[in-house]
Amino acid sequence: MSEEVRQAVAEAVGRYGKERSAVLAVLRALQKRFGYLPMHALDEVAKALELPLAQVQGVAEFYSFLAMRPQGQYRVFFSTCIVDEFKGRAALQERLCARLGVPPGQTRADGRVSVNEAACTGLCDQGPSLLVNGWPIARLTPESIDAIACFIDQGVPLEEWPREWFAVQDSFRVRGLQLNAPWRSGAALKRALRHGPEFLLRELEVSGLRGRGGAGFPTAAKWRYCREAQGERCVVCNADEGEPGTFKDRELLKHCADQVFEGMTLAAWATGAQKGFLYLRGEYEFLWPHLEQVLRGRRRRGLLGRNLCGLAGFHFDIAVVVGAGAYICGEESALLNSIEGRRGTPRNRPPYPVTHGLCGQPTVVNNVETFFSAALIALHGGAWFAQAGTAKSRGTRLFSISGDCAWPGIYELPWGISVQEALELCGADDALGVQVGGPSGAFVGPRDFHRRLAFEDLPTGGSFMVFSRQRKLLDIVENFSAFFAHESCGFCTPCRVGTQLQLKLVRKLRRGWGTLGDLQELERLGQVLEASHCGLGHTAAHPVRTTLAAYPEVYQAALREIDFSPGFDLDAELETARQLTGRFADHLAQE
């Protein structure tokens, strides 16, 4: 085994190189080879890359798709996104575990299979879903679960499973200005090269394009700041859309990868960068071969590599880096750390990536949709893009609509559309509310359906989850609270501890054991979470705060009733509260 490990490490290092940035790729390769990461394999990696063992082990322990203990030959991950939960995920997972004889979170004694959970597989429009050895299976039913169990028990190689099981349906429901725009590979780049970098930046300014990742920073300003900074500049595409309820990047990478790569190349032309990276979330690994194929095609056509389009001195190429299951890596500085081969812990800011990004050099970080839009703007002009949207939110954007609606999918809509209009488009006529922007966004109740999806009102990274009146609000809040508690990187105490305490208090309320003091404690926790190191902690209290504002009566109804009539015994009531708290703690321990 030791000789096999040494050979496997040597092969992986030979393929990915000896730079520190190769750590994650090498560990992923070893994970595939052995099913887990033996400690002596980590030791070999540390020696080969000339790194301390503690640093290599720290990376291995950070990502949920890497494992330090043996995993199954078939490694299954069920999506626990709230949309999948409401479609019966728990019962389907229980059915598969029962059929295979394996408890959740464990590996079967014979090493055949392990069943785990993932926060979101990016298939909310066609759930419930799972990943098996990185391949997606959507639209699960009891019958498909039984068939999967049969194939696993028989040891049928994944390559021999029916191909239609892994088919991810196209989800474009409404195509607007951008998705209907004519496109020819290389045309936008050649237009920009003819007119110069300053022309491109002016077109972006006219367009009013702002980052589509959620923060909404003006794209032209970001590229200009990076251009003016000193150092070896770099361009990074953030394709780690881990926000539950978001899946637009999946479809853009599947159908419009050429536009995305051209947008990155335009950023390189505007800033003077020579290196580019696309950071692909681990749940989308199945898209990797397609992305590499598109990159090879662009290189053959002279659109990547040295002397692009025949222009001497313009060198730029793009590498795909695949993540390993960490929501926090969607935060740009955590993503940069991950590319560098470190734990995906967010950095202190300032300084910002435009001046001190990848390896301390000036770096443009934009998400998939932003580069996609930039390429179209370079081809069709800033005024063309700015004709849609509002004064402060120009253009159209892609919304991932899922949940209790007739037509889930991707809708390209102009900024400024109301929540009510979006609900009518997707066929949701009995909405309890909408979660705009994923768990870190806002829960919008019916009295606010007139509000507009725009930076000046309801900004969003694109997630739009619809919940009908048949759903229980506290089920939603608990799921979101569990998501934040699970995805906290653990770097800072306010987030590491605060998210766990928030989850326990929400569970206590949901099960009817809560008191008014628990609500007050939740409010205090929200203030504590605001002191967190990064945006994850800053937004972790949003599910409680926004639902409490929209539906205070739901929280009041969840409180344990106390009779303050004559004869009320405070000491007896306190003793009862202590007993309830003890029972609740025992219940959590059993879970």
- Enumerate how many helices there are, as a single number: 24
As for the CATH topology of the largest domain, it is: Rossmann fold
Give the number of domains: 5
The portion of residues forming beta strands comes to 5-15%
Kindly state the number of beta strands.
Answer: 14
| Main sheet strand line-up | 5-11-10-14-12-13
What does the main sheet amount to?
A: 6 strands, mixed
Q: Architecture of the largest domain in CATH?
A: 3-Layer(aba) Sandwich
Structural class: alpha/beta
Protein described:
- The protein is of the alpha/beta class.
- It folds into 5 domains: 61 residues; 96 residues, Glutaredoxin, CATH 3.40.30; 213 residues, Rossmann fold (3-Layer(aba) Sandwich); 71 residues, Ubiquitin-like (UB roll) (Roll); 88 residues, NADH-ubiquinone oxidoreductase 51kDa subunit, iron-sulphur binding domain (de novo design (two linked rop proteins)).
- The protein is built from 24 helices and 14 strands.
- It has a 6-stranded mixed sheet. A 4-stranded mixed sheet has the order 2-1-3-4, with helices on one face.
- Helix 6 runs parallel beside helix 7.
- The model has no long low-confidence stretch (mean pLDDT 93).
Write the layout of secondary structure elements.
Layout (H helix, E strand, L loop, with lengths): L1 H15 L6 H12 L4 H11 L3 H10 L11 E6 L2 H5 L2 H12 L12 E6 L11 E3 L2 E3 L4 H13 L17 E3 L12 H9 L1 H11 L11 H10 L5 E6 L8 H8 L1 H15 L3 E6 L7 H13 L16 E6 L9 H8 L23 E5 H13 L1 H5 L9 E8 L5 E6 L4 H8 L4 E6 L5 E3 L18 E6 L4 H15 L5 H18 L5 H14 L5 H5 L2 H9 L1 H7 L11 H21 L1
Helix pairs in contact: 1-2, 1-3, 2-3, 3-4, 6-7, 8-12, 8-15, 9-10, 9-12, 12-15, 18-19, 19-20, 22-23
